[in-house]
Amino acid sequence: MPIRSRENLIGAWAFLIGIILAVIIGIFATLIGQKSISPGLLAILAILGLVVGYFVSEKDVQTFLIASVSLVVVSFAGIQGLVLSAALGQFDLNEFITTILGTLLLLFIPATIVVALKTVFSLAKR
């Protein structure tokens, strides 16, 4: 039976909870029709992003930064209207997608900043 590493357990759970919460907030905000999401929920997403960034191990920094920067750039492009407009029945998919991408940005931007700063400080120590 293999032994599992527990070094990233907190970061992994924060990441999973953050992704699920971001998608749920995005869906419900679109369905309810609110353009502004509760600042408390947004703060929770940002704090989860900080936790995720803090617990990224040094061996995973390069992979995390490449993936998170790619996600941030693509999400920002999607929010800016580069996502194809589509409608499914009475639901506007473009609004769903842009709201979910916006909440994902709130999770990934703090995580990316923390990991980038940790990397810069570790390079400065050498």
Summary tags:
single chain, two-stranded antiparallel sheet
Low-confidence runs (pLDDT<50, min 5 residues)?
none
- The first-to-last residue Cα distance is 38 Å
Helix-strand pattern, N to C?
Answer: HHHEEH
From the spread of the alpha carbons, the general shape counts as: elongated
**Major sheet, described briefly?**
2 strands, antiparallel
Order of neighbouring strands in the sheet with most strands? 1-2
Q: What is Rg?
A: 16 Å
Helix/strand class: mainly alpha
Count of DSSP-assigned helices: 4
What is the average of the pLDDT values? 82
Q: How many structural units, i.e. domains?
A: 1
What fraction strand?
under 5%
Report on this structure.
The chain is mainly alpha-helical and 126 residues long. The chain has one domain (9-125). Helix content is 75%, strand content 3%. It has helices at 9-32, 39-54, 61-82, 93-125; strands at residues 87-88, 91-92. Strands 1-2 form a two-stranded antiparallel ribbon. Helix 1 runs antiparallel to helix 2 (39-54) and helix 3 packs antiparallel against helix 4 (93-125). The termini are far apart. The relative contact order is 0.18. The mean pLDDT is 82.
Which secondary structure elements does this structure contain, and how are they paired or packed?
Blueprint: H1 9-32, H2 39-54, H3 61-82, E1 87-88, E2 91-92, H4 93-125
Antiparallel strand pairs: 1-2
Helix pairs in contact: 1-2, 1-4, 2-4, 3-4
Brief summary:
The protein is mainly α and 126 residues long. 75% of the residues lie in helices and 3% in strands.
